[in-house]
Each structure stands twice: as structure tokens, then as C-alpha cells.
Design brief:
This protein is of the alpha/beta class. It has five helices and 13 strands.
Length: about 230
């Protein structure tokens, strides 16, 4: 199994955790690669050299047996989702930030986490992602674990026509619209008045931002829906 290590440059890396992480990966005979920013931080903090073959800049070629391990907080894990070589690659997070709501480990159980990865005993949950197509998405398509949002720019409210499976659902006048997954129901959608959902539910939430019409409320639709 190959571990794809990912962390962001601005993350407050902790030397003792990093040393434990690398030690456990080597002790369990696991292969690994790290993104450039993370590799540079490891070299600076631990005084070791990460060779070129263990570094990657942007895209990762699938090995057929990969797992992404993010080191940071929830934002780092959300970024790590986009690094997966394919949709079947699992992602697990080690928290060294503040909240770490989505992460599996608080940094105190690294030994147990890496051992469970090596022994293939780590339990995973399948989470719904939003796939976005259009001119606003990078390369015409992007994936989101929490939500996507459409915002107004400037002082004037915008009008959004929302269709579900080619059927008109609502016309939103206001600051915009949030389309959330169940995982993201406790994030941006919650602040708009959206419901809290079990993350294993199979649905999307459409939550208007500051709607001009007070009768507009969040709508929940199946995650098989095509939202336009």
C-alpha cells in the first residue's frame, strides 16, 4: 500500500508528530510520497532529506493500492480530496489544527492509525461528493465534499433559476445559493438555516443565501439529482 501524504504550507507542523508519522510508516513497511510543501516542512523540522521520487507537485499516478493521509485540519482534508488518483482512493485525516471535525485522529493515535492502515483494519465511510460542471469549474469539472456556492458580487442581489432533473423548482432572489452534501450540512449550509443531516444520508441540500422572498426555505433532494 502507498500512502499519499498531504499538508498545506501554512499548517502549524509539529516535529514530534511528524517524526512519529514517518517512523510508523517505515516500521510498518509502507511506501509513501509527500507533496512538495509537506516534504520541505519535514526536511526543515526534522533535518532529513526527502528524495525526489518521494515527492509530487500536483497529480499523483495511481498505484492500485493507495490511501491519502492529510495532516492538518478540516481545510487540509478538503483539499486532499482533490488529490485522489481515483474515486476509490480513501482519505483519512490527522489533526494538528484547531477543530479537526472531519479528521480521524487528533495526533495522539498516529501509531494505531498507521498500524490499522498497514493491517487493512481501518473502517471507512462512503461520503457523497458534488460533481460540478461548467465554465466556473477548473478544467470544466470539480468535486466538492462539503458544498458549492453561488454568490453575488457587489451590492445588487442576483436571481437564480434552480432546476432539478430538468424540472423548475424555485427562483431565488438574494445573495446566492448553497448546494451542500450531508457532510457539509454542518458547515456553510447550517449558517444559512439548513438542516443537520447524518453524513451517510444520500441527498443534497439547496439553501438560499439571504433570500429576498421570506417563503424560500432549504430544500432536500436525492443525491442522484442533476441540479442546474
Amino acid at each position: 500500500m502507498k500512502i499519499i501524504l498531504f499538508s498545506r504550507k501554512q499548517v502549524g507542523h509539529r516535529p514530534e508528530q511528524l517524526r512519529t508519522l514517518l517512523h510508523e510508516i517505515e516500521r510498518n513497511n509502507l511506501d509513501y510520497i509527500a507533496n512538495e510543501d509537506f516534504a520541505a516542512a519535514i526536511e526543515q523540522l526534522l533535518g532529513i532529506i526527502i528524495p525526489a521520487e518521494r515527492r509530487f507537485a500536483e497529480h499523483v499516478a495511481p498505484s492500485g493500492d493507495d490511501i491519502v493521509v492529510s495532516y492538518g485540519g478540516d481545510g487540509t482534508l478538503l483539499d486532499a480530496i482533490t488529490l485522489r488518483p481515483d474515486n476509490a482512493t480513501p482519505v483519512v485525516g490527522i489533526n494538528c489544527g484547531r477543530l479537526g471535525y472531519l479528521t480521524a485522529d487528533d495526533g495522539k493515535g498516529i501509531e494505531r492509525l498507521i498500524r490499522s492502515i498497514a493491517e487493512r483494519t481501518l473502517n471507512f465511510e462512503h461520503r457523497t461528493l458534488i460533481e460540478v460542471h461548467g465554465d466556473i469549474a477548473a478544467a470544466g469539472k470539480c468535486l466538492a465534499l462539503n458544498e458549492i456556492s453561488i454568490h453575488r458580487h457587489g451590492a445588487t442581489m442576483i436571481t437564480i433559476e434552480a432546476c432539478i432533473n430538468a424540472k423548475h423548482v424555485a427562483t431565488y432572489h438574494g445573495d446566492g445559493l448553497v448546494v451542500s452534501t450531508p457532510t457539509g450540512s454542518t458547515a456553510y449550509s447550517l449558517s444559512t438555516g439548513g438542516p443537520i443531516l447524518d453524513p451517510l444520508c444520500r441527498c443534497f441540500i439547496l439553501s438560499p443565501l439571504a433570500p429576498h422572498n421570506l417563503t424560500m426555505r432549504p430544500v432536500v433532494v436525492p443525491d442522484t439529482s442533476r441540479i442546474r
